[in-house]
Amino acid sequence: MKGVSILIETVVFDIDDTIYDQQEPFRKAVQKLFPLVSEEDMLPLYTRFRVHSDANFNKVITQEWTLEFMRNHRISQSLKDLDYPHITDEQALTFQEVYEVELDAITMHQEVEKCLDFLKQKEVPISIITNGPTDHQYKKILQLGLLNWVEEENIIISQATGFEKPDVEIFDLGKKQFSLQPENSLYVGDNFNNDVIGSKRAGWQALWLNHRNRQLPKGTSQIQDIELTSFEQLLPTFQHIFA
């Protein structure tokens, strides 16, 4: 952990697996639909699910794939990666429906809530840049109660922009829309490629919330300014930055 070396004036968050634990609704949906999946395979399956989701969402943006096709692909391919039986498109669709029901019940991680309260108390501007379908992500924003801390105009959802993380353009859009200076802004996210590489390319500071203890992707180096391995480290880190 290098630690930020210059003044931070604003904090911008990712949503999925940063504001809330994304594995929990996934786990519940898998248990209901695919009881063959063992508990020890749950994390590897979720990891593959995220990989396929992150790798292929751009095909939805460019309209090469439909959103439904991408969603079917990510669960069926993830199960295949772990040698589970092939599932039909109908089963994949049903999984997505159950997964969305579980996502409707997501709650903010309590340590993140403490951080948002602290930042608000310190009058630090808070914004959001998230990848995903506009309606889907906005529903999460409402479910998580994020509008208690974040102004509507300080939210960017990738599908509405034509760009997605790690595109520099989406961070540049954030710079303009949020009226921030990249070098004085800290982006907080769990995904090294999307969140760390993307924000650093755009000249931002980057906090990698590596709470799943992932290895650095091959061919990459430690460019993050801060790396945390648990949600519990967030508040002390912000207290130090904004002391």
UniProtKB/TrEMBL annotation:
GO terms for biological process: small molecule metabolic process. GO terms for molecular function: metal ion binding; phosphatase activity. SUPFAM superfamilies: HAD-like. InterPro entries: HAD-like_hydrolase, HAD-like_sf, HAD-SF_hydro_IA, HAD_sf. It comes from the Bacteria. Its cofactor is Mg(2+). PANTHER family: GLYCERALDEHYDE 3-PHOSPHATE PHOSPHATASE, N-ACYLNEURAMINATE-9-PHOSPHATASE. This is HAD superfamily hydrolase. It comes from Enterococcus devriesei.
